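Protein 1 of 2
SEQ + STRUCT:
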Amino acid sequence: MEEIQEIKNLLDKLEANYTAEHTSKIKHNLLLNKINTLINTKFPVSNIEEINYILSEISDILLIDISAMKSNKRHKDIVFARQIFFYYISMNYDITQARLASILNRDHATVIYSIRVVTEQKSYFFETLKELNKRVKLKIKN
């Protein structure tokens, strides 16, 4: 509970600094870094092994290297793989969008967009999601 109060206090400071006229960008960034550090140390992702497993399964299913998924490449097949990853993880794990985005070197806006694309065009993604779900369930049984 103390951690939540500490985060709230830091967010209040950040908001106050953001609205002040003479806010220095450095002070603003220092507060953001402090908040991120606190969140990452106090609330780590406990399922990182599972998330990495899912990333590797998507890589296997779609024949896309994980390094390509983490790269800046914007080829259709690579974007498709990222979108599947962001959608699947966000629907099955309690992880912030910013934290999820950082796994593939993206920002939270990319995660939001990916979730929307997959949700709106589920039939296009259906077979891949079905295969991924089957593999993940199989791993859980073993």
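Protein 2 of 2
SEQ + STRUCT:
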Amino acid sequence: MARDRTCFLHPHSGAPPVAPRTNRSLTRLAAADTAGVDNGSLDTVAWSADGARLVAGGPYQIRGDHPIRLWDQGGRGRAREVAVSQNTLLHLVPCGAGWAVGATDPAFGLLSATGKKRLWQTGVIADRRGTLGDAFTLSAEGGQVRFGLGVGGQAPVLFDLRTQRLTEAPSPVPGLAAPDTTSLTVSNWEDKVSPKARRHAAGPPPIRDLPRPRHRPGPHPLRAWHRVAAPRL
């Protein structure tokens, strides 16, 4: 990302992750202060519109908060951090005197030159990540289901199919139970992209042979079959 025609930023996963370089010779001009960045990386970087400040963010986090790291003097100054999002910062671009930012909370907003939030909008749809075990329960006939609208089952609600109503349900609802996740052995599914299912030792149930057709008497025999119930697989 070019600040002007003389130098640009070179972010990468190794140390130091932010390094201004000259445009012609690719010579490193300086390395931004990244001391203490040991819990994630700074994958997205940007100068301010006037080139006086440098900002970076990414998966880097401190006690669950994902901050931006700010440097004055075009990236040569002392670093300071401002907590911004609850998840990875994906993109930073100059906007006025500050920056526009997008994060995987999901959230987006505008930051001032000091990193203060001027505008911040988080997601308005349900976030079902981490909704496991007792965070997702349902009735035996499937007519009621209790689940959370937030990560890990936060902000739980109850949906009743019979009344077609969605109501808040902060406490467990009697008669509802967590889904059966033990009858079928499934592994490698939590936080993975390639789940695996193991066959039962007995194998699939056998398919019963259908009876042979019998002919009706007459000059033009018709074929008829006995109707049999299809076996459950």
